[in-house]
Amino acid sequence: MTKPLPDAEDLLARLAERMRACVTADTALIGIHTGGVWLAQRLHKALALRQPLGTVDVSFYRDDYGSRGLHAKVKPSDIPFEVADADIILVDDVLYTGRTIRAAMNELFDYGRPRSIRLAALVDRGGRQLPIAAQFVGAEVSVADEEQIELKKSEKGELSLVLNRQAPA
Amino acid sequence: MTGFNPQLNSNGELQHLLTIEGLPREIVLNILDTAHSFLSVGEREIKKVPLLRGKAIFNLFFEASTRTRTTFEIAAKRLSADVINLSVGTSSQSKGETLLDTVANLSAMHADMFVVRHSQSGAAHLIARHVAPHIHVINAGDGRHAHPTQGLLDMFTIRHYKKEFASLRVAIVGDVLHSRVARSQIHALTTLGVPEVRVVGPRTLLPTNVSELGVHVYHDMAAGLNDVDVVIMLRLQNERMNGALLPSAQEFFKYYGLTPEKLGHAKPDAIVMHPGPMNRGIEIESSVADGRQSVILPQVTFGIAVRMAVMSILAGNA
Description:
Chain A is of the alpha/beta class. Chain A is 24% helix and 27% strand.
């Protein structure tokens, strides 16, 4: 029996406070579809950033395309600022294996050479398969391998975390 | 649709793209949505994604084409695939090799995908039936039968400018008889729920059974274009005409060539499309082809994104 998941709104507030001291008005945020985009929209407002918000869908850069094919609901990536020389913070909901972040970084470099990329994640569940770490984390949680943490958004825009048990493959 | 569809694998996913006829609507929409995401790849510094790295795509064109072959080649390269173009004039076919032997030999060179254009209807189907299960086939035009990626890029273009299909009136004008493009467009428009599809042309250039496809038939431009949202002009296919179907090209232009006056019967915000290559002064006047309502060049750009979508969906459905 795992502990209940923390409240997503509390974690988001904590994440914003942790980032506040480390950003300037020119820091650029890029949310990773879909949960990361919701978080990035909220953080962008909370931190009063000047650069327009970017979004990426990493489907064209995933390393499991060969085994799983193309994701059915690919969304367009939209990076409305100059990536070259930008200080970027990638935003994702759940940091796990690190493969999504690897894919997102590869995609960013096809837009230009950023000065720096940092990573913000609402929750870090461990289990990394690549040498990737987040600079800003809402909370570390531990869940079983077969469990999946999903960020949900209510009609009012309220965020919450839910635990799904994956069907055995 | 019931029964066996050679384009789908056992999971109902797209294995080959041979024709739009009988394709589930969700698959068509998924291709258009995916193409939308690929569109922005063409606008950035590095216009490439790594999806098809290490895959070998053979462009097998047994019939001349510049635009289609080039846009397939660009699409494959933007997906990071290796592209091999086979030129017809020097191919083994001229030495007597059969189509299937040519394909078997290219498969032995570890091909992952064939993009096939052939003057014989059914050539791509024949290849798809005989290749190994991991190889995908895209029909890039077979005889008078189908040209599915052109049909799809036309739907992408219509959706781009008109947003949705449910209230549209679309006219397809000219040489429908010889046009595989028109057949693919009609199937696509019907699949996507366009309520009124019209074909407009002289009796000699409309197939006798065309109304069985669910279209309205017109022989007069003023009536046929009246109040339409989209005008699709077809190329007059002189090279496919045997015998005298038309008195002359000038005569055709007089009655069916798209001029500003004839276009005036359509809605003021109607778009004008053409699959190319255009015969200026035969099916379309230059002032219309280059005019405010023309979306003929955007069609070409969208064609790259649509072909990227088709290739990456197919190659991902192992």
